Amino acid sequence: MFAHFTRTVIAASLACSFHSTLAAEQSMDQMWGDKSVKEGVEASERAALFRDGNYGMFMHWGLYSHLGGQWKDRTFYGIGEWILRQMQIPTAEYMGLAKEFNPSEFNAKEVVRVAKQAGMKWIIITSKHHEGFAMFKSAHPFNIVDASPFKRDPMKELADECRAAGLGFGFYYSHNQDWTAPGGNGGPDKNADGSPASFDRYFKEKCYPQVDEICSNYGELAYVWFDTPGNMPVEHVKALAELVRRKQPNAMLCSRIGHGMGDYLSLGDMEVPLRNHEGLWETCDTTNDSWSYAWYDQNWKDSKEILHRLVSTVGRGGTYLLNVGPDGKGRIPDKAARYLVEAGEWVKKHPAAVYSASPSPWGHAQPWGDVTRSGNTLNLVVFDWPADRVIRLSGIDGKPESATLRGRDGKLHKLPFRQDGGWLAIDAGAADSASLDALASLVELKFDAVPKIDPIFGIHPNLETELSCEFAQVREAKYERINWMEKFGEWKFSLQVGNWQPGGVAEWEVDIAEAGDYHVALTYKGEGRPVWAVSSSEGAKIQNQQAATAVYQTYPTGILSFAKPGKHKIAVSLVEGDGSKCSLEAIRFSPVR
Asked: Are residues 581 and 492 in the same domain?
């Protein structure tokens, strides 16, 4: 995970808990299904909470929380909910831990308070994760009421509190993986009597009955969030979908149920995309690195990073589901709660920027922040003010009526603006510093009608502008997403251009706001000392050699000059080096001052 969100390519996996090679067994098309069906769901009343709320709380809480990332005298530095599998804890020993699990400080009212103050509109919690331990009263004996000294049903308590507070409520349920149930994917291959275990028997005796229980005993559900379908037979997935539809007709199904039977698409873990996506989709993210509680994991997203990721998800057209991992006593870690609430204070002051907001008409972020839309108003959320406090927007076809800064002091400050060609400049230089919020400033840019936008990338004269290869036109090279895992479960990815052939080019069309000189830097990895060239459609060219490494780093390349403002094409090519080993991720422009 990056310490800040100035770069949007961030840690990801193919599922929240597609935290293993099991994740890759189904294509996204299989996960997502028929687009026309999903368009019908999007307009339905059932989808209203998801479509308009845009922000929910995820909770990973289970028997693994009692271990907190440590087994005996060893710490597991991966996602804590996988400790049973990764530390190879004997099944009987792990199941025996239930006798010690007593989350005596769990307080459903406190959880709901944090979610409400964070500005979240629903809570989805793990009723059963891959470990197989049910956090609810179940006929299957391996559950928190019957197998632990806690003896209460925390899911019932949380469902009741959510309902009383006006929050939606939903369950996560791991329907394919079950590491302690014979026949479950990853579980024992023999039954207690020594006979061969089968998935069909696991499904019939545990999975299906437990899904029936969570759909029957906890009131109306807003969501049922299955996970890691892997190679699960389609008939079983269909049976679960039909069960949910019958028992909970208003519940939304996540795409991770498998076989295209979900109502909305769940992207990879922690993935805030660079480009707008159509339809109903979510990013599930977590407040630190692990999804469940881990004693050592203090790599918290602070309030500004939480807010930035929320706004950028909404700006791309999605919904943000942010996880907390309560500890073995049932408490949300203090720093997670504090940063969530701090970000929530901003959301409560500026609800139109998040709730029911439409995505950015540019289809991508801006160097200074991001944009959402409310009717004829563009919500400009400024995370990084330029030194001159002038923010710019390219490609606008339409005349604004007003630009208003909503100050931290609660006052409205009218800002002057000017248009030059397709660029709009809004000047907050005269605004009192006290009016600028420490997390982000909101500037409401109002038009008499929804403006037409050219989504071209603008090169700003007062801020660094980064262009990802996601937006490049590529010839004689290969654009693709590559994924890798660092510590276990910490998936990362890059949207990059590799496999460079002679004459290979990655090219962007850009709009230069002001002529002049710009520092150029390239982000890449490789071997040896590759030579890269950068050229413009005006004929300017720079070329340089730098030693490459096995990880992506940003290297200065030179100063490129633009004689005229306006639209230009920028091309990057590999002049020398092993094209099979060199991988280009982005190009950056910084004005010379």
From this structure: yes
Range of the domain at 401: 369-455
Structure tokens at 322: 């942010």
Residue-level length of the chain: 593
- In terms of DSSP bridges, do strands 369-374 and 390-393 run parallel, antiparallel, or are they unpaired? unpaired
| Tokens at 434, concatenated | 């006290």
Do 79 and 228 reside in the same domain of the chain? Answer: yes
What is the distance, to the nearest Å, from the Cα of residue 388 to the centroid of all Cα atoms in its chain?
A: 32
Tokens of 149: 């000294």
- 401 and 503 both lie in a single domain: no
3-state secondary structure 389-437: CEEEECCEECCEEEEEEECCCCCEEECCEEEECCEEEEECCCCCHHHCC
End-to-end Cα distance, the chain:
32
Give the pTM.
Answer: 0.94
Q: Are residues 203 and 298 in the same domain?
A: yes
Query: Does residue 378 share a domain with residue 295?
Result: no
Quote the CA–CA distance of 1 and 60 in Å, as a whole number.
Answer: 19
Measured between alpha carbons, how far is 421 from 397 in angstroms, rounded to an integer?
9
Question: Could you tell me which of 442, 429, 361 has the C-alpha nearest to residue 398?
Answer: 361
Name the strand (E) or helix (H) holding 557: strand 553-562
560 within 8 A of 520, measured Cβ to Cβ: yes
Q: In Å, how far are 259, 365, 474, 537 from 466, measured between CA atoms?
A: 37, 10, 17, 19
Which are the contacts of 63, defined by CB distance < 8 A and separation ≥ 6? Answer: 94, 97, 98, 101, 131, 133
Q: Most distant CA pair in the chain: distance in Å?
A: 81
Cα–Cα distance measured from residue 158 to residue 296, given in angstroms and rounded to the nearest whole number: 27
In terms of DSSP bridges, do strands 55-59 and 319-324 run parallel, antiparallel, or are they unpaired? parallel
Q: Say yes or no: 571 and 551 in one domain.
A: yes
Helix, strand, or coil (residue 285): strand
**Boundary (domain end) residue, out of 424, 455, 486:** 455
Nearest to 513, CA basis, from 454, 460, 563, 549: 460
Closest C-alpha to 260, from 525, 33, 60: 33
Taking the C-alpha atoms of residue 267 and residue 270, their distance in angstroms, rounded to an integer, is 8
What tens-digit pLDDT sequence spans the chain (593 residues)? Answer: 223 223 233 233 333 443 333 333 344 455 555 554 566 788 899 999 999 999 999 999 999 999 999 999 999 999 999 999 999 999 999 999 999 999 999 999 999 999 999 999 999 999 999 999 999 999 999 999 999 999 999 999 999 999 999 999 999 999 999 999 999 999 999 999 999 999 999 999 999 999 999 999 999 999 999 999 999 999 999 999 999 999 999 999 999 999 999 999 999 999 999 999 999 999 999 999 999 999 999 999 999 999 999 999 999 999 999 999 999 999 999 999 999 999 999 999 999 999 999 999 999 999 999 999 999 999 999 999 999 999 999 999 988 999 999 988 888 999 999 998 789 999 999 888 878 999 999 999 999 999 999 999 999 999 999 999 999 999 999 999 999 988 899 888 999 999 999 999 999 999 999 999 999 999 999 999 999 999 999 999 999 999 999 999 999 999 999 999 999 999 999 999 999 999 999 999 999 98
Statement to judge: residues 107 and 245 lie in one domain:
yes
